[in-house]
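Journal club side-thread
Mid-discussion, someone asked how the predicted structure for our own chain would compare to the paper's figures. Pasting it here so we can look after the session.
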Amino acid sequence: MQDCPNCGEALDGATIVCPHCGATLVEEKKPRVRRRGPGSLRRIWTRLLLVLLAASIFVGVLAGSAYYGVYVGERDRQDRHTTVITQHYDAGIGALNEGRYERAVAEFKYVLELDKDNGLAQQGLAEARIRLQVKPTPTLEAAHSLAEQLLEQAQAAYRQGDWVSTARTLTQLRGLDPAYEQATVEELLFDSLRQAGQQYLDEELLEVGISYLDQAIALRPLEADVISRRNLAARYLNALNYWGVDWALCIEKFEDLVATAPDYEDVTQRLYRAYSEYGDFFVSQGEMCPAEVQFGQALRMYADPTLEEKRATAAQTCLIATPVPVSGTVPGLTPQPIAGFSVGRLAYPVYNAATGVYDLYALYSDGRIIPVAGNADQPWWEWGTGRVAYRDRNTASIRMELPEEGVPLQLLTIGQQAWPTLSPDSRRLAYAILEPEGTWGIYIANTDGSGGPRRIAAGWAPAWGRTGSLAYTGCDDSGSCGIILDDPDDDQPGGRLTGSENDQGVSWAPAGNLMAYMSNFTGNWDLFLLSPEGGVQQLTTDASDEGLPAWSPDGSSLAFVSNRSGGWGIYVMNINTRQVQRVLDLGASLPGWESQRLSWAP
């Protein structure tokens, strides 16, 4: 038994609803509130972050796809644009040949709406309008008679060599009566168009000539030589389209023309002017290094004192102001990489006309140029440390210095030493010294100062190879002189590889399997390659002087000095292609340069 909690009446224990008041007797269960611990919250945040990350990736993919779609769409749009122009130009040419001049006018006008500077469409439009003005409008009865008259007029013009009148008259005839003497008319029309096109090309009216030749091509194929002339003229016009608009692309196209047809029109003079104009453009932008390159390219084609003065000014500004000035670093000045020099560091001497001595500099691949020492020359890099050994003319000694720090280490103080060269392990130093008899001798000394110098042989300009062999210029026991190859660790005399005492300036390839040197036995100084087994190959044949070769650290190039552009400069040659790039200006004078040295290391 139980009482109703609402009205108090006694009820049966099985009753669920009170029969007196209708109250529900079953206790309602309250919903259970689930408490979430810290672990559950972390899982929720993790899931939320994953969802956000997935959404970000999805949006990124969509954005990338959209960008790619825009890029591809733009490229496709340009292709379709070019295709439409070509189709309507060809349609205009066809309408001209068929005598449908109104249609030709419409086609050429449409091309010009798409490309207002299209010279061929402009010429086609002009020709269509000329023919439209004289188009005959005969009655049907007079058509045959007029066609006969037009053919006679065309044949008379053809006999007189008036190709333009012949072509115009025959296209009028075809418009009047396409079936009249069809084979004869087409033969005459084709030949007159071909002749007119070539005549205009001869007169250097290239766009007009191309237009007539295109009309001939619409009738039948042209001979290969005529097609070649037509295409050459089109390439020339294409290059001119970039004149003053995009000098780099203009030069590229004229370089291609000069390479394939140097005598065509004025392509060679145009290329020369393009180089010069591009150089002037760089000067106007304050970019002296690329300006010097363009002026140098122009001067390789034609000598011009005014242009040489521009080049020298640009080169000097580039050398002194752009990478690093002569006297230290200017705060805020950012080094600029030098075209043609992209690896390692190059030590080189520069003649100071004000003091009358050589000063030593180091060029780095990032464009920095750091002064190493004044009144110093004949550098030799120590591989792996960044230090450079050189001849100090102030103290008559051999010194070694880390250019970035500028603290020299004195190695030798005997006096009159020259051409220092380090052994592969840097423990020994070979050099030449002027002996009391007035001749040069090759000596070796330990770099730590222990022991005394040891004389190897008579000779000068030693160069130590990476494999341990020592090369120098000297004379053998027979009195014959040239480059001597010696093992400094045995007691045997070295073997002579070449035959002139002016074979000198040896530089070893990094692998030690090849040497470069200079010689003037041809009448001027040139560069040569030399195998340790004795094979020789000449590298340069210019009438100018080239010398002081220095191998690049990767063995792919040679740096050298030359006066091939009038003044002196440092050039880099690709060994495989023989292509040469000027990288630094050294000024107008290098007195006694034959006794100098360049050194290139990683």
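Post-session note: The first strand starts at residue 2 and ends at 3.
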